[in-house]
Every structure is written in C-alpha cells, then in structure tokens.
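Researcher: Here's a chain I'd like modeled. Treat it as a single chain, no partners, no ligands.
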Amino acid sequence: MATWPSGTKAPTTNCDAGTDSPRLFRADAKQNIDNVNAIIDMFNIDSPSANQVLKYNTSNARFELGTDATTSLATTFVGDDSSGTAVNPGETFKIAGGTNITTAVSGDTVTITGPTLTSFITASSSDTLTNKSGAVSMFTNDAGYITNNGNGDLTITGSTIASSGDTIDIDDTLRFNKNYKEDINALTSSTGITVDASLASVHTVTLAHSTTFTISNLPTGGSVTIIITQDGTGSRTGAFTSVKFAGGTPTLSTDANAIDVVTIFNDGTNKIATIAKAFA
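Model: Modeled as a single isolated chain. Structure tokens:
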C-alpha cells in the first residue's frame, strides 16, 4: 500500500539561494513531485459535503469520503415501559434509582440494589413475616387481611376465602358465632331435574311437572337440601334416583302450594334422606 512520504522529503539545499545550480536541484524537485503524487494517489476525494469523513478502503489502498457513522454506532437502551432510547458515542446514559432502589457505579460496573420486600410485605408491630418455620402474624392486601392475636386464633377480614383445591380442611371444632348462611340455587321444573350439589347446598323448585330428582356431585360426608313446592295445581309427584328414605320411597304432599323439605346425606356408600312434609 502507499505510505505517507515522510521519510523521503527532499532537502532545500540546492534551491534556497540565487547562486544555486538548477542542475543540482533537479533530483530534489523530482523527489518532492513523487511525494506529492503519492499523497494524491492515496486520497481519492471529489467534492465533500457536510458531516462526511475520510475512510480507508483496503481494496484500493486509498482514503475516500464516507458518511459519518456516529448514528449507526449508537447504543439503544429499552425498558419495560418504553420503545427505546438511543445513546450516541460521547453521550451519557443515566440509570436512576427509584423508591427503595439504589444504583452505584464503580469503574465499568453498574450495581442496582432493591427494592426491599418491606415496601410490599409488612409485619405488624415487631413481629416478623417469614416463610418455612416462621409464623405469619399479619398478611394484608387491598381488600382484607388475616391476623393472629398471639393465642393461635386467626381473624379474617374480607368477604371471600377461596381454595385452589376441592376442600378446605379444618381439623378442629368449627364454630359460627353469627350470620351463618348457605347458598340457595333455584331449580327449573321439568320431568327430570338434576340437583348439582357443587352449585349450592340448598336448592328450591316449584313443581309444575311430575319429576324425577337426580343428585350429582354430592361428596362423601356432604349433604344437600331440596325445598319442593307444589304449584297452584298441585298433585305433582316426585321420585329420587339412588336415594334411600326411612320407610321406603316417600310420597310428596300433593295439595296446591304445599311445601316439602328433603335432606340427603352421602355416607360414601348410600345417599340417605329424610323428608319433612306439608309445611304450613
């Protein structure tokens, strides 16, 4: 490749006085002309425009005009809540902390610390909220909370307790001091009625047909109650599939608007039922 002719500069000894001989200067002039030509050959420049730079082209061993690559060398930082921010060479990108988040820079290392869990999960008083072998003294969210009074008693504030499984197991006495209630599901009269115990523990129906009741989803140890009302005509009959009553198959009250209550318990082998008739 061509090199900058810094090592072949011609002296001016033979051209710095009027008495110098042109013949002796000829070799010096030739050397300088060769040097200028080498420089011209190395730089292939036409008409530069704003923001262009010189780039070396290895294919022809020349410097040529090119576009400034500053923009293409930019680094883009993208956060969870943004489409990205470009940071060009020479610019500064700041990483700022927030609530319970701190940042520190040491050399080429950025350390981000936080947030601490105490901002989101707190224990009351001096108690500690832990997992594994620890005890939860208070767990809160925006709707309700559970507290432990220190004597093993739990107080639940809120409207709903849900289980991800089929049951919530209680291994000791369950006492309701007040306001105990059961869900009631209204059934539609037809010649065949399915009583789905998974929907509610109490079901009501006004019979406009003689019908057969089928009990579904009644777990072992569970019970379901059916409140049966005759319509204004009355005389509707009712049969029960796979249910055993004391004294055999019962007969419903047949008077118009008569009310009977059937309660069925599943002992794991049989569905055992009782009927209370003619409520008035």
